[in-house]
Specification:
This protein has 121 residues and is an alpha+beta fold. Helices cover 21% and strands 30% of the residues. The longest helix is centred in the last third of the chain and has 14 residues. Bound molecules: zinc ion. Zinc ion binds next to loops.
């Protein structure tokens, strides 16, 4: 996966909202995360238990992100934490979606029949 995909994942799935207000230091997300977004504490890396990240990324984050740990699976997603070397901003980047087996076999069925044309004599 190249950088454009990574950036897209960051912007679409990971960026804290502009109007984001921490509620007791927790952020409601679709998936559980070990990242705590706060500007009340200094950025810390306690991976895999916990990562304290600034609530907002900076210009440095797009050139100085490093991978934390190894890729992990949760539900139907494979993801990896990336953390900025400079400011400590951390995101969970979706690397790929694990295909739904039912969906895949349905798709195979559709593709298999889609190209069967009755050729007129
Ligand atoms: Zn940064």
């Amino acid at each position: 996966m190249g950088w454009p995909g990574v950036l897209r994942a960051i912007w679409e799935n990971q960026m804290p909202r502009k109007d984001f207000t921490p509620l007791g230091g927790r952020m409601e997300r679709t998936m559980a995360t070990i990242v705590e977004y706060t500007d009340q504490k200094a950025p810390q890396n306690f991976y895999p238990e916990r990562i304290v990240s600034p609530p907002h990324s900076g210009p440095c984050c797009f050139s100085d992100m490093e991978e934390i740990g190894t890729s992990q699976e949760e539900g139907r997603w494979v993801y990896q934490y990336k953390r900025c070397r400079k400011c400590g901003f951390t995101v969970r980047v979706i690397l790929r979606e694990i295909p739904d087996e039912t969906l895949v076999s349905d798709l195979r069925q559709i593709l298999a029949t889609a190209f069967q044309r009755n050729v007129p004599d």
